């Protein structure tokens, strides 16, 4: 896969160099898809999302809890999800996120292209 | 401002919300941990570890919400400022250079703005025009009362036509002391036509403007403030003006100026009398102004006035002058800045040239800095900083430089304006009305932005090219080519400035040193005008003149002494040439223009140092005998008599069959202003009794006595004669210096700009050459190692500098030839393509360029080959 330098959002200056891979578009895209998929079954707060991903993927995927929030906020700004303060069953205040129509659309696209790419890679691996 | 606070508050609120969300996550995790068998005391700590760095997360969330573009700009700004702090000498030089450019152009803009751009202090000023005859009587259009009355009927072009007399001195008695003020008489509809209303009291009524109405006056805001202490009860008050009791009915607005840009203290109704015989009104001088009907253009107005104009020309203009008279209708602004438009544009042009030079220099500095940082830039480009990003960074840097320089420039402009006010005599170019106000600051802001764009463009363009890692080693050639072109441009612009300055200086020199035809040293003049009331009768005036003559002779050291109505270098009264008649000769040619005339006492020629070239001067005996001899100037004698001797011929001057004998011929003396060659002139003897003498009078002394002491004696003598008679005492040299003050002001200002500009160009050249030498140290080292002599190396650097300087000189000469032509009106006695001025400008620039080349070329020659080769 070719990673174009221009797409790297490297806004830092040379003195502050250091490539931070978790910020690349590709991985952000994956995290975004995971979050969208998780929210498909209903609104959840951040901790719930982290827990859900861990549980459902049988511990194969781990979302670093801290890096979840910048992603959530970015997606909220992009109007893919909608955030709202609610009270948890245990009586705590937490911010719940739900999919918007746009978010659902984006999820459908992402699932489709993910399936295509992974099938392609799978076939490639099988062939070799 | 409010929205800024709101933004800050919103930002604080959302910050708290983001924190709360993270806290809530930690609490939920802690709860979950505890529920899954973690000891309660460890549950919290584990939650924190599982979450990672909360502060970093908060920072990232924040980054999501802040507009990334603004954030980037802020980051750029921070980075730029850090860079400037790291290189203080670069920053100071760049900011000071911008400050010079912005300061000079802003100060000059503040001076020319009211003249060229700002709307006049009248309602809908674009409708106002100046109307009149233009002919060999005056250098501006004028009118006469009878024609003015005729044109009042021209309703098609004009909504209103109004008139004013030229300004005249008048004396207001305030307590015991007379105050010499500037009075204007104007038609009652002047203010109405201009769309101005008094700020206090009322305007003239139609009755006030009737021929024999009692005098009422409007006073200026300044007079109201200074003399009447801004007292509103001044309305209705009676004051003594020219020894007549007049009633104040109103106060003019603060910014009011007369339509020909005159400053007025007191405005009286002109009370023109249409019932007077036509020939009385047709010799009565006026300036007329009109408000065009809406939708009527100046061109159309000319057509619509034409029939009225032709009719009054036939009635009012002597046949001999008719072919030399034409109609003028032009916008009021053109009329107002008639004599300063060229000066204004020249100064503005010089200031803009200086600003351009400053921009080029800063561009050059930024380029030099960019090449010093090119490794850093290439690195940034290589790791993915986009071109747009690098260009934005470049422009942010230049905008910040511009902002700092612009702010310093505004301060510099304020200072420069005060220096100008100090240097220039009052009234020059309306300087006393120049202010640094919002308009001027907006100009400074726009100029700064444009300048920043201009000098920011160079490094930005560079960065696009160096946007690839490949340019790491190859950008050198193009980079220096660009900088050399900049230097050539600087040389060109400063050559234009220098040529302009040297033309103005040489013209000033001509003006200072031209032969005037009279001698100015040791001549002191005392001007006075007998008041209208006390000296109403000719007899009273003649008596005053006699007393003045007698008492002036009593002043110790008064040397030679004379009375005249006016003195050179200006003329006094004029008559049409064709009115003169010579006994035994056919009438003189028509359309001969005008002849000047002065009434002088016998001592005049000796006192002024005007030589008699044929015949003799007037004598006291002739005066006593009541004869009326005439003396001609050489120009007039030659024009009438050619090579014949005019002495003892008879001449008739007034068309009244009174024949006077020509007793002598004088050499020509400047009489049409300092810049014009002497015109034809004749002198009449001031008689002890005469039916008419001009009221304004000048007593002239040639005295070895120190002017200050003499001044005091003159004033004492006048005070003894009539304490209420104001006198202006001045040495003739001072008077001439005043007349030369505008050319001197222009020349020194443009010369100063040219000097600074040339210095900037020299710095630019020096910078580029130094850069070249340091960049090619190794190459030079190799050449020296294989046998090039230091002299050859130095010569090579100089030759390179020479090429670009010569290119600049050629461009500059072409520009100068094109631009200095427009300065023709500012030059006296020299042509706009004066060889000496051009040569001087080129010589100065070549000298400066040589000096700027010297240090870098010698540094190149001193390079040690061994050290240079080792240095990589």
Strand order of the largest sheet of chain A: 1-3-2
Estimated radius of gyration of chain A: 17 Å
Through-space gap between termini of chain B: 56 Å
What share of the residues of chain B does DSSP label as strand, in percent? 5-15%
Shape of chain B: globular
Order of helices and strands of chain A: HEHHEEH
Mean pLDDT across the residues of chain A is 75
How many helices of chain B?
A: 29
The main sheet of chain B comes to:
8 strands, mixed
Low-confidence stretches of chain B: 466-475
As a percent range, the share of helical residues of chain A equals 40-55%
Determine the oligomeric state from the structure: heterodimer
Radius of gyration of chain B: 38 Å
Helix tally of chain A? 4
Verbal overview:
The complex is a heterodimer of chains A (128) and B (872). Chain A has 128 residues and is of the alpha+beta class. Chain A has helices spanning 25-39, 46-56, 65-77, 101-127, and strands at 44-45, 81-87, 93-99. Chain A has a three-stranded antiparallel β-sheet with strand order 1-3-2. Residues 1-25 of chain A have low confidence and may be disordered. Chain B contains 29 helices and 24 strands. In chain B, strands 15, 16, 17, 18, 19, 20, 21 and 22 form an eight-stranded mixed β-sheet that branches. A six-stranded mixed barrel of chain B has the order 4-5-10-7-9-8. In chain B, strands 1, 2, 3, 11 and 12 form a five-stranded antiparallel β-sheet that branches. Chain B is globular, with a radius of gyration of 38 Å. Chains A and B meet through α2, α3 and β3 of A and α1, α3, α4 and α14 of B.
